[in-house]
Design a protein that fits this description.
heterodimer; A: alpha/beta; Rossmann fold; two-stranded antiparallel sheet; 5 helices; B: alpha+beta; Phosphoribosyl-aminoimidazole Synthetase, Chain A, domain 2; 23 helices; 23% strand; globular
């Protein structure tokens, strides 16, 4: 189905994402540059906000992009219950835009971090984690601001409603502090909105989508997303 | 500054005194950095042609044909001087500059590498330089969205006052999309776009062409400031311009700014240019012609456009909201003319401006060579303790503190991450290439010629160990002040060595750069860097060969030493660590043996009979073995008391740095074939021992727990940076 992949100035994962989406049966991605505004989103069955450094991460990661006109179109899509996914900078944008609770602070190390991490699928409530019950996924991260933080109330709510989708974990699946790569609260790596159709996550599933890259664990998440774009 | 001889020459050719603007233009284009006036006379020693060479050195990037209409573009450059003054911006704009070189040829950038040299981190200023230059590279490269796929970090006190930042960018394109940096057609327009022009980086190349004085902070204004967001937009814009075939020529604005970019395009095209500086988009008020024409502000490109395509080009530039201006046109008069407010500020013959300098005399002298004596060598009292010390030492230890700050996976084509013998990425049509960069500056200090050749051989082995066949070279030659005979002789000797290597192995040099004047006068004394010819080699995996990593994998498989070990510890890491200096004759360069072993190893890869494989390099056999277990789930038990060659004692066997050697892990069922293959090629192999499930590195007479080894290995750099 038609998937709008949004490119802001500074977005840099759009090609990687479109290549994987196009390889999934039923995935029909099309690029929407920010300067085209929300118009082209009208025909979208789902929206993908890829990673990168929108507006150079100036001000705060995702802050400038989150007030662009095109975001109004993304909000409409989300309201209509269609799937919206934001990876890395996409997650930062969704959080800044208020589509997801919490914020992504600079990493605890204060440095950019790129590495392979293990990810534990936490609750199975969302369309994105179907078939991944308690799976341990090997997926890379690459970010400077991935330290998830929210209020105690929000954390309580996220946990209570089963909305934490992914946590950083060790190879046994335990979310220990030693393997928390950025200082995220409760090892949170990805969350969904109340309705479960909007997912934000820091790790890059598109970079773990071909055996030659060392892992295909990310593909399942993207396949779930594509499948969800077909649902009525 | 122009020398007296150069000024007289210019005056004579012009038949008048040069104008202020002309003086500025000549100063930057005749600087060592732009003109290669001390170095170019030796480039004929490099092999630059070959059946895969699509475009040799001379433009933005060399282009290599890897078959099926896929070209690989490569460029390599230094950004040393700016980084010593302002490491964050200096290193970031180094990355920005090398990306521009590759995109100016029409390439899509697909990989970056960087080779860094600093003084020891025990000095806080060196830790500051490392922290900030890595941050600059990380911030810039990550933002633009190009994966970092390899590089080097080394430390020596000779870099205390002259750190080295060498950068590589790799790109790809199809032959029909090549853009050349020539201005062939009079009447075509010059359109500058990407960013505005300011006063940053004024005469940066001139400052890079002198030695540092004690007052280095005075040069801060000569350092450029990068803007990765603008660069990403330039990439998006170029993709459209190239796709729609709207460009008749393209050049980036790097060292020497507009003077260099337009001058070189006119020179290559046999034309002239007319620049109207009033049309250059500025970021500062009150800039005058002589500043605008030499500014090195970043993220700017200069396009040659047929007037018929002008509107189409403007439309794309407008859409992306990128600054641009139609700043002049190509002429047929073979002059570089600069106009301001309708008045001529400069009018220089192109053939004077570009390479019209009087060739300066440079003097070579006989370099002092050491002896082959090993009288200094003493066995370590405690082998286990010594090996741990070496694992923790700066030039051996884990580099992940550095490379974990670089995005290695963006573009989703990275097959082998940094930390292996070489980085591997996938190109279009399923082609895989490996990239490695090396330079052993201790060997080069002791014998620049053999040191350069042997550094290249080490780079070659890093590719071969993984299964890639080396196909092209790029280099960045970092040396001292060429006006001083000893420094100049080091440079010339190293070029001879690398030239010899390129012919011996039939691997063409397709790109490179020379950085001289890496000297500082500190309290009246000349401090020069060790000769550092940084050599990068690209290799291709032939059909059916997959990258083999160096981690040991299979308990009970045997570990073989391939090759002969000589008593060669002069210039070694062992020598430096035990007597705190290097001396003597470094390991010899042995092209015939190296080529023979390479052939056999590539054949072994083709037959898939090795589970893992490692090159033996810095730190010798002991370090090569340890690196095979730093990230694996197994250990080893070996005996290295007796191995083929003139190396006799355990210390010599473990730490000699003889070239043309590898380690291979081979399971029992593949051993007959492995033995046969090596025997056929007349290559001695030695079964050193076994892969074991115990987490231990057992050398027979001593052993180390892997846990302890990893602990010290991982903190070598990190302990200075936390």
């Amino acid at each position: 189905m038609a998937i709008a992949v949004i490119r802001f100035p500074g977005t840099n994962n759009e090609k990687d994402v479109m290549r994987v989406l196009a390889s999934i049966p039923g995935g029909d991605p099309y690029l929407v540059p920010n300067y085209d505004g929300p118009g082209p989103l009208a025909r979208a069955d789902g929206v993908f906000i890829p990673g990168g450094f929108s507006y150079g991460d100036y001000l705060r990661a995702g802050a400038v992009a989150s007030v662009e006109a095109i975001i109004d179109g993304v909000v409409e899509i989300a309201k209509a219950g269609k799937p919206v996914i934001g990876i890395c900078n996409g997650f930062q944008i969704l959080a800044e835009a208020g589509l997801l609770p919490g914020v992504l602070l600079p990493n605890k190390s204060a440095r950019f971090v790129c590495k392979w991490i293990n990810l534990r699928t936490c609750e199975t409530k969302s369309i994105y984690t179907e078939g991944l019950d308690s799976a341990i996924l090997r997926i890379p991260i690459a970010h400077a601001e991935g330290n998830y933080y929210c209020s105690e109330e929000d954390l309580h709510m996220l946990k209570g409603e089963g909305r934490v989708s992914f946590r950083y974990c060790n190879s046994e699946g335990e979310p220990t502090q030693e393997v928390n790569p950025n200082g995220s609260l409760d090892n949170i790596a990805g969350i969904v909105n109340e309705r479960g159709n909007v997912l934000g996550m820091m790790p890059h599933p598109e970079r773990a989508s071909r055996a030659i890259l060392g892992s295909t664990d990310g593909l399942a998440i993207l396949e779930n997303f594509v499948r969800a774009t077909k649902a009525p | 500054m122009l020398t007296k001889q150069e000024l007289e020459h210019a005056t004579k050719v012009l038949g008048r005194e040069p104008t202020e603007t002309e003086l500025n233009m000549l100063d930057v284009l005749w600087s060592e950095h732009c003109s290669y006036k001390s170095s170019q006379r030796w480039f004929h020693l490099f092999k630059t042609e070959g059946e895969r060479v699509f475009l040799g050195p001379g433009e933005g990037a060399g282009l290599v044909d890897i078959g099926d209409d896929v070209l690989v573009g490569v460029a390599m450059e230094s950004h040393n001087h700016p980084s010593q003054i302002d490491p964050y911006n200096g290193a970031a704009t180094g990355v920005g500059g090398i990306i521009r070189d590759v995109i100016s040829q029409g390439c899509r950038p697909v990989g970056l590498m960087n080779c860094l040299r600093f003084g020891p981190l025990s000095k806080p200023h060196n830790a500051y330089l490392l922290e900030n230059s890595v941050h600059g590279i990380s911030q810039y490269g990550n933002s633009v969205g190009i994966p970092m796929i390899g590089g080097e970090v080394q430390f020596d006190s000779s870099y205390d006052d002259n750190c080295l930042i060498n950068v590589v960018c790799i790109g790809t394109l199809t032959p029909d999309k090549i853009v050349r940096s020539t201005a062939k057609t009079p009447g075509h327009l010059l359109i500058m776009f990407g960013s505005t022009t300011g006063r940053d980086g004024i005469a940066g190349v001139s400052f890079a062409s002198e030695s540092f004085s004690d007052e280095e902070d005075e040069n801060r204004g000569a350092v450029q400031i990068g803007d990765p967001l603008a660069k990403k937009v330039v990439l998006d814009v170029l993709e459209e311009l190239i796709e729609k075939e709207l460009l008749a020529g393209l050049q980036d604005l790097g060292g020497g700014g507009l003077t260099s970019a337009a001058g070189e395009m006119a020179s290559k095209g046999g034309t002239g240019v007319l620049i109207e500086v009033d049309n250059v988009p500025l970021r500062e008020k009150g800039m005058i012609a002589q500043e605008i024409i030499i500014s090195e502000s970043q993220e700017r490109m200069l396009a040659i456009v047929d007037p018929a395509n002008k509107e189409a080009v403007f439309e794309i530039l407008e859409k992306h909201d990128t600054p641009y201006g139609a700043i002049g046109k190509v002429t047929d008069d073979a002059f570089y003319t600069v106009m301001e407010n309708g008045e001529i500020r400069a009018r220089l013959p192109i053939n004077l401006l570009v390479e019209g300098f009087p060739v300066p005399e440079r003097i070579e002298e006989q370099l002092q060579m050491g002896s082959g004596s090993h009288a200094w060598l003493q066995e370590p009292e405690d082998h286990a303790e010594f090996l741990l010390r070496m694992l923790e030492s700066l030039n051996i230890c884990d580099r992940s503190w550095v490379y974990s700050q670089y995005d290695q996976h963006v573009q989703a084509n990275t097959i082998v991450d940094i930390g292996e013998n070489s980085g591997v990425i996938e190109f279009p049509k399923g082609k895989m290439l490996a990239f490695s960069s090396d330079c052993n500056s201790y060997w080069c200090l002791l014998d620049p010629r053999s040191g350069a050749a042997n550094s290249a051989a080490e780079s070659l082995r890093n590719l071969v160990a993984m299964g890639a066949r080396p196909i092209f070279i790029a280099d960045c030659l970092n040396f001292g002040n060429p006006e001083r005979p000893e420094s100049y002789s080091q440079f010339v000797e190293a070029v001879r060595g690398l030239g010899q290597f390129s012919h011996d192995f039939d691997i063409p040099v397709v790109g490179g750069n020379v950085s001289l004047y890496n000297e500082a006068v500190v309290e009246g004394e000349h401090k020069r860097i060790n000769p550092t010819p940084q050599i990068m080699i690209g290799g291709i995996f032939e059909q059916g060969i997959a990258p083999v990593r160096r981690n040991l994998t299979t308990p009970l498989a045997n570990i073989f030493l391939v090759g002969t070990t000589h008593r060669e510890l002069n210039g070694s890491e062992f020598q430096r660590l035990t007597i705190d200096k290097v001396k003597g004759i470094p390991p010899i360069y042995q092209p015939q043996v190296e080529a023979k072993v390479m052939g056999a190893m590539l054949e072994a890869h083709k037959r898939r009979i090795m589970r893992s494989c490692n090159n033996i390099g810095r730190g010798g056999l002991a370090i090569a073995l340890m690196k095979m277990i730093m990230n694996s789930e197994v250990g080893f038990t070996i005996n290295a008391d007796e191995i083929p060659g003139t190396s006799k004692t355990l210390t010599e066997n473990l730490y000699s740095e003889t070239s043309a050697r590898y380690l291979a892990e081979v399971t029992e069922s593949n051993q007959p074939e492995f033995h046969e293959l090596m025997e056929e090629n007349n290559i001695p192999i030695t079964e050193l021992g076994l892969v074991v499930t115990d987490k231990v590195a057992n050398f027979g007479s001593f052993s180390i727990s892997i846990g302890k080894a990893r602990e010290v290995y991982r903190k070598g750099i990190a302990k200075f940076m936390e």
